[in-house]
Specification:
The radius of gyration is 21 Å and the shape is globular. The protein has a ten-stranded mixed beta sheet with strand order 14-13-12-11-7-10-9-8-15-16. The chain has about 425 residues and is an alpha/beta fold.
Length: about 425
């Protein structure tokens, strides 16, 4: 990115890595070495991640970056509460990319920053832990995947259910034929989000770097409605509920069925519950058909909290000999008639519906990332495996936004014969901010 040139010039280490097309740090740390981490975006989810990384073995949070100075201070306090030490703070995350003493970064910013920031971090030789979704659009997922392959650095996506002990166990059993042939799955999320009101164009508050908050996105005047959570519901910055929360549950389904790209995608829904500025969907039913006679369905309800199977979120997998219900707390196995056979609860605290997340799954997912950086341990949600689940969710939104039945190329994951869908494959960038791989 042209906006980063002055920062790159200051970092001979990053420059050397880029010149050779190789990581500046790579997996050179020992199994018990300390990994220095900077966390970007600490208002809500990132604040909890800062706290959890601070308590992780062989990890030290040395930097907190946020365009909002209040959120930055919140992140610093969360780390101090764990370690007693105050990490360096800054509104411009790029200062941390130029620090050779930092080995990894954690990205919990708005979605429009996820892939561009991750790519910049990889350019600077940093390993990356990026919150879901790993991209704001499918093209960015391609770019991030290419950049990771070029550098060889670790990139873990924050779909922490992949680190669940109980779900890893039951998924393996499903693959081994526990419920016969597993051929269909349903993912859901039901919440009671209220109305968000209308746009509030005001002066930029003194605590916010609005220019950097927008970053790669085309410029607009400050809108108080967006900062800090409602950006999720606007296509310029967010990805709607399907990627905000559905990424977790859709990924469980894809994991269980052992599928990658769907062959056909359809979706219906809209903004039904309230009449306000919200652009995305509070109600959505998306269907993904696969070439080997398998299917996944998504039932998203942002504003009606009626649970399914007594769960606000989860997934159910259907097979020829039974079914399995899974969520962050564990699983239940049923026979073909719906009689419970057995169940298992995940150990430790699990947090399901809180927007900050947290709990034991985060602890294990982060520990896996640190060990991956230190000793090369296989990541539970490496970007190469995480990206197909994110792409599926993007395709669901693309089908909804175009009103078309999308037929998907099995080699590339791209819609075929749909100009309208391919116009949504990538996005417009502010001048000088398009990621370069």
């Amino acid at each position: 990115m042209t906006n980063r040139r002055s920062f790159i010039k200051k970092s001979a280490l990053a420059g050397a890595g880029l010149t050779m097309g190789m990581p500046a740090f790579g997996n050179v740390l020992g199994a018990n070495d300390q990994v220095n981490v900077a966390v970007f975006g600490t208002n809500s989810r990132g604040n909890y991640l800062a706290h959890t990384f601070a308590g992780a073995k062989n990890c030290k949070v040395v930097g907190i970056g946020d365009t909002d100075t209040r959120a930055m201070e919140k992140g610093q306090k969360s780390v101090m509460d764990v370690t007693g030490e105050k990490p360096t703070g800054g509104q411009d995350f790029r200062r941390f990319l130029d620090d050779p003493d930092i080995q990894a970064v954690v990205i919990a910013t708005p979605d429009h920053w996820h892939a561009p920031m991750a790519i910049m971090a990889l350019e600077a030789g940093k390993h990356v832990y990026v919150e879901k979704p790993c991209s704001q659009n499918p093209a960015e997922g391609e770019m991030l995947l290419a950049k990771q392959a070029k550098t060889g650095l670790k990139v873990q996506m924050g779909n922490q259910t992949r680190s669940s002990v109980s779900l890893n166990r039951i998924i393996n059993e499903i693959h081994d034929g526990l419920i016969g042939k597993a051929y269909a799955a349903k993912a859901w999320y039901a919440n009671q989000r209220g109305p968000i009101g209308e746009h509030e164009f005001t002066a930029v508050p003194e605590w916010l770097d609005w220019e950097l908050w927008q970053g790669p996105a085309p410029r607009q005047e400050f809108d108080n409605l967006l900062v800090h959570y409602n950006w999720h519901w606007f296509w310029k910055y967010g990805t709607g509920e399907l990627l905000n929360n559905g990424t977790h549950e859709v990924d469980m389904c894809r994991w269980a069925l052992q599928v990658e790209y769907p062959s056909q995608v359809t979706s219906s829904g809209g903004r039904y519950h309230f009449d306000d500025a919200w652009e995305a969907y509070d109600t959505q039913l998306a269907s993904f058909e696969f070439a080997d006679n398998k299917q996944i369905h998504w039932d998203g309800r942002s504003c009606n909290g009626m649970p399914l199977y007594d769960r606000g979120r989860g997934a159910i997998v259907y097979g020829t000999e039974g079914s399995v219900i899974m969520d962050r707390g564990g699983y239940v196995v049923y026979d073909i008639r719906g009689n419970e056979i057995r169940h298992e609860q995940e150990t430790g605290d699990t947090i399901s519906m809180d927007t900050r997340g947290g709990g034991n799954l985060d602890v294990m997912h982060i520990a896996n990332f640190i060990r991956g950086v230190n000793s090369g341990e296989e990541l539970n949600s490496d970007i190469t495996n995480a990206r197909p689940s994110v792409l599926m969710c993007h395709l669901g939104n693309m089908a909804q936004r175009t009103g078309e039945v999308l037929h998907i190329d099995q080699e590339t994951g791209k819609p075929q014969d749909s100009q309208a869908a391919m116009e949504l494959w990538e996005r417009e960038y502010a001048d000088g901010w398009k990621p370069q791989v």
